[in-house]
Amino acid sequence: MPLDPGRTVSELRELHELTGDEHGAQRVAFTDTWARAREWMREKLEALPVEVEDDAAGNRWATLEGASDRAVLIGGHIDSVPNGGWLDGALDLIAGLEVLRRVAEDGRPAHTLRLVDWADEEGARFGRSLFGSSAASGTLDIEEVRGLSDAAGVALPDALAEHGLELDRLAEARGRLAGAAAYLELHIEQGPVLERLELPLGVVLGTFGLERTRVSFTGQSAHAGSTPMDVRRDALAAAARLTLDLREIAKQGGGVGTVGTIAVQPGIVTAVPGACEIVLDQRHLEADGLAVMVAEAREAAQRIAGEEGVALDWQPIWAIEPIHFHPGLIELAEDAVREIAGEAPTLPSGPLHDAAEAARVGVPTVMLFVQSLRGLSHAKEEDTLQEHLELAVEALDRLTTKTLAWVGGSP
């Protein structure tokens, strides 16, 4: 069975037809649609000489035993955001399936090859991204997620129980990365860089570090008609000013900064806003650069609060350090991409990926990116040219072959 990249594209379309609608992909983790997608994937795996099992966090592992138990992992996730794209996460997994087919057809590999479908990479329902992979890496704090619930009020422990999982047993998944010799992941870029370069594929240097901060400004609600402009304590004005400053801080610091959520009170057109809460999302590939950006944002918030006559509350809510991928695997990935596409640009990843959790616990890790049209993702308009998707499958296959040989020659 030779590698058939066209089959990957066909299977991606088949999956989308099964689990999407006119609004996009609907494979939100720990829902019936997600379970349907996983059953579809299990049926594909049944044709291969692999052992399929789920760990205590809901991650699904398909293992092709090799002559050595040193394992190369190919990872992805079948869950999506609501109304998401047809490629995000699923490409990683279905391309990995095709590589697994090809390796299995060639006979028993020198080293074990595992395909893993990480549970709830997106965090779309309960707000905790990288749920399954962080349980496997040991970085997930069970007590921090115990009280999470979704928009409908369903508690995380209850949602897990519906799929045969127990919150208090999540730590049992931790050992699954212990024997990994390398971790590979293919993903759509989800940004415009490769399209701007007019290149189909790229090699990922690492993932941005991230700091999320809840910033609350408290002023004084007052009548919109009778309160002079020079005596207002407008919390929304303070939040708006910080939002604009955040953009400049990111531009100057070489990272990215976003305010994607805002809550204002009393939220009526006839009242000066007395309270406003925003959440800052700041990212950078270097820890020092991220620290500078966060410090500058806090200084700006304090200055603006004083100028607007409002109180400031600054609450860090989540952080993850920058992750740099393995230099040796980056070289192999560059070789694989050059052999397939001619050029191998390198770039960082702004979005988080499960690969970061593998790298955090010392597993040699690298990622490949394939071009995203218009840089769009997490939207039904997400797309990649079919010829680029097929090149990506070939590159992942080439990288897998090189990595299996590298594992054999590495200490």
What's the quick description here?
The chain has 411 residues and is α+β, with helices and mostly antiparallel strands. Helices cover 37% and strands 25% of the residues. Helix 1 (5-19) packs across helix 12 (386-409).
Task: Provide an overview of this structure.
By secondary structure, the protein is an alpha+beta fold. It folds into two domains: 5-207 and 322-409, Aminopeptidase (3-Layer(aba) Sandwich); 209-320, Alpha-Beta Plaits, CATH 3.30.70. It has helices at 5-19, 32-45, 90-105, 131-137, 142-145, 156-161, 193-197, 235-253, 287-308, 327-341, 354-360, 386-409, and strands at residues 20-21, 24-25, 51-54, 60-64, 68-76, 111-117, 180-188, 201-207, 209-218, 222-223, 256-265, 271-272, 275-284, 311-320, 323-324, 346-349, 365-370. Strand 1 and strand 2 form a beta hairpin. It is globular, with a radius of gyration of 23 Å. The model has no long low-confidence stretch (mean pLDDT 96).
Key features of this structure:
411 residues, alpha+beta, Aminopeptidase, Alpha-Beta Plaits, nine-stranded mixed sheet, four-stranded antiparallel sheet, globular
Task: Compile the SSE list and pairings.
Elements: H1 5-19, E1 20-21, E2 24-25, H2 32-45, E3 51-54, E4 60-64, E5 68-76, H3 90-105, E6 111-117, H4 131-137, H5 142-145, H6 156-161, E7 180-188, H7 193-197, E8 201-207, E9 209-218, E10 222-223, H8 235-253, E11 256-265, E12 271-272, E13 275-284, H9 287-308, E14 311-320, E15 323-324, H10 327-341, E16 346-349, H11 354-360, E17 365-370, H12 386-409
Parallel strand pairs: 5-6, 5-7, 7-17, 8-16
Antiparallel strand pairs: 1-2, 3-4, 4-6, 8-15, 8-17, 9-13, 9-14, 10-12, 11-13
Helix pairs in contact: 1-3, 1-12, 3-12, 4-11, 8-9, 10-12
